[in-house]
Amino acid sequence: MKSNGLICFLLFAAPILIENAHAQDTQRAFSNNIPLKTLKGKVERKDYHTYIERSFTLPDSVKRLRIEFSYNGKEQRTTIDIGLMDPARFRGWSGGARNDLTISAEDATPGYLAGPLPSGEWKLLLGVPNIREGIVSEYEARIYIETQTGVTEFSDKPIRAEAGWYRGDLHMHSGNSDGKCTSQSGKEVGCPVYKIVETATDKGLDFITVTDHNTISQANALRELQPAFDKILLVPGREITTFYGHANIFGLTDFVDFRMTNASYAAAKNWMSAVNNNGGIISINHPGVPSGEACMGCGWQIENIPDKVITAVEVLNGGSMKYSIEGSIEGWDQWHKMLNSGQHVTAIGGSDDHHAATIGTPTTIIYMKELSVQGLIDGIRSGRVFIDIEGKKDHFLDLSAANGENEACMGGTLKGEPSDTINLTAYVKGVSGGKIEFIIDGKLNSTLDREILSNDEKIRVNWETDDNRHSIYIKVRGKDGRLVLVGNPIYVEGR
Ligand SMILES: [Zn+2]
Ligand SMILES: [Zn+2]
User: Fold this and answer.
1) 432-470 pLDDT per residue, tens
2) Residue 289 to residues 58, 315, 316, 374, 440: CA-CA distances in angstroms?
3) Looking at the CA of 350, which ligand is closest?
4) What CA–CA distance (Å, rounded) separates 309 from 268?
5) Which domains does the chain have, with CATH numbers?
6) How far is ligand 1, taken at its centre, from the CA of residue 293, in Å?
7) Rounded CA gap, 398 and 394, in Å?
8) Which residues are the signal sequence here (predicted)?
9) Contacts of 74 (CB under 8 A, 6+ apart)
10) By C-alpha distance, which of 151, 194, 63, 76 is closest to 381?
11) 318 CA to middle of ligand 1, Å?
């Protein structure tokens, strides 16, 4: 294909091939799975005002149970209620209000109790509040199980099916850990998850991850809220909070054992492998914040982590950004160190909001094949991501690099020969009068600085490569010189 430097900029076009994306579609694969069991039957007038129990046997090690229920005769006013018992206890009742339900250890459809899924005989409870004389209604309950941990979607289908750039916040806390809000009478109380979701929707965000410290008890609230907030993607997240550093994990709801009592990778490997092996991703949080009594375990101390274990670094954190956006308290040094060691690691931002107030500052914008949890994970992995420090909706940044026939977008790799000229095209919106800077291998190359003359600007520069591998990303500054946008690297391969 002849490169015109524009392949990266065909916005909202068909999804581009995402490098390193280990496509996993657990939830939908699960929904399409063959049922463990299908219970079929019929009710007629003799069943009027009775309860029917239908048994099924759950095997060991089930992580999630899902039941889809349907019946005919609704036009003749047949009504069949459903509920559920496990081998030991009542697990919920939804009457005639729902046709499907899901239960895992951490979250469940409202009306049902989250918790372990014991093996043995379960009972689907059917109640018949109405069936007319002479009517026979057939019902079918399809019982699905998932025995592997995986990426959890709280939405039955993507929030938006289109590929595109989606804006959100990847780091915040609710009252499930140390997030606080003000009560009716003015007291400081643990912040309920709905307040966070409301704040995020008020700010016009497309997605949030609620990343409470080590716990995932917020998942049940997210499960409940997602159908009501059907324009914003709610992503299960967690801040793995150790004595030697903090890291966000995205996508999983299962327990991840965060306990480590020394700073070695050997000690961290347990939880890091659990996340990666089950389709989640890890982002190192606020690595430059010093650890101490003011912020216990906040600085990142875990070294010698193998390549590909860490997917992202929180380069800008809303908490520390107040002090210095470009200083050593932020994640620049950690990110550059990893880039310069040859790792492909995506820079992201997160507000680290603890009061349902500053969500969206900074905003992270991710190119996703669809707005879904899996879309977000694949998008961060691909590296086609930028950070908008002030979270302004009219800001945009993209970068493409071309070398003859080849073109790479942010996160992609360009194969270059020594002395090849790389044509870099930056696309910036909403920062007229500002300046664009090219950062190569973590260092500003000021010979490539360019003024931004309009609010919709494509800037082209040429740069000559050599034998070595390189990373190239862009920073965008406003008129007053303050940093506004940060892109992600395009990688140029060496010999
Ligand atoms: Zn933290
Ligand atoms: Zn945090």
Assistant:
1) 999 999 999 999 999 999 999 999 999 999 999 998 999
2) 47, 11, 11, 30, 24
3) 2
4) 11
5) 1-18+392-495 (2.60.40.10), 27-146 (2.60.120.380), 150-383 (3.20.20.140)
6) 13
7) 13
8) 1-23
9) none
10) 151
11) 11
User: Which residues of the chain are modeled with pLDDT < 50?
Assistant: 1-5, 11-31
Element (H, E) at 338: helix 332-340
What whole-number distance in Å separates Cα of residue 11 and Cα of residue 166? 12
Which residues neighbour ligand 1 (ion) by CB within 5 Å?
246, 285
User: How far is 9 from 16, CA to CA, in rounded Å?
Assistant: 11
Residue 320 CA, ligand 2 centroid: distance in Å: 11
| Contact present, 163 and 14 (Cβ < 8 Å) | yes
Reading the block at residue 394, the tokens are 């009219």
Query: Residue 423 corresponds to which tokens in the numbers above?
Result: 């044509």
Cα(414) to centroid(ligand 2), Å = 35
- Going from the Cα of 223 to the center of ligand 1, the distance in angstroms, rounded, reads 24
pLDDT of residue 10: 62
Distance CA 236, CA 214 (A): 12
Name the nearest CA neighbour of 288 among 245, 249, 258, 346.
245
- Residue 296: CB partners within 8 Å, gap ≥ 6? 243
Distance of alpha carbon 273 from alpha carbon 198, whole angstroms: 34
